[in-house]
Amino acid sequence: MAINALSTALTGALPQPSGLSGVTPGATGGSAPAGFGDALQGLIEAVDNSSADANTAIGKMVDGSGDVHEAMIAMQKADVMLQLTVQVRNKLVQAYQDVMRMPV
Question: For residue 31, what pLDDT is reported?
Answer without folding.
Answer: 56
